Amino acid sequence: MATVPIVTEVTKAQLDALVAANGLNEGLQYRVTDKGWLLIATGVSTYKFVSIPYKAYCALLTNENVTDNVIPVILQNEIGEIVWSKQAGDGDYFGTLIDAFPMGKTAIIIGNQFRNDYNWIYMLSSWINTSNVQLQTVNDQFINVNGCLDNTYIEIRVYEF
Q: What are 80-127's pLDDT values in tens digits?
């Protein structure tokens, strides 16, 4: 985990009040996304709030049967509405949001490979430009293939440093 500045501290009594008011479980990490804070336990009697240095988009991606377009199930979205589109080639998809992905500040995390009836399928991701990220599905010979997204997890982080 990256080192981030401490913004404020709360006492155990203040934490108990937060837990009671928000239904949180003591001792666990929490991300309060509307404020961009992460609560982490640092000791028996003192807890600290620290700033999270990125905004995140998390989704499960699935291919639509007929067109092979991407259907996202959004789990978390602090970046904006990313539009997923199938490109001309097999297994090639773009996520587009104008000026949302700054160079050197965008990280993409994608679900793991899996094995279908014939071979291994791998998920590849890359930053294209400030408005597009790319997702590709390829087989074990690195040939792009369609129809391989099935609740595939993707997380896009845009860092604010």
A: 999 999 999 899 999 999 999 999 999 999 986 676 666 788 889 999
Instruction: Return all residues near 38 (Cβ < 8 A) that are at least 6 apart.
Output: 29, 30, 31, 32, 49, 50, 51, 52
Provide the residue count of the chain.
161
In 3D, which of 8, 59, 62, 13 has the Cα closest to residue 35? 8
From the number of C-beta atoms within 10 Å of its C-beta (0-12, 13-18, 19+), residue 152 rates as buried
- Rounded to whole angstroms, how far apart are CA atoms 124 and 111? 9
pTM (predicted TM-score): 0.71
Instruction: List the domain boundaries for the chain.
Output: 6-51, 54-159
Distance CA 87, CA 85 (A): 6
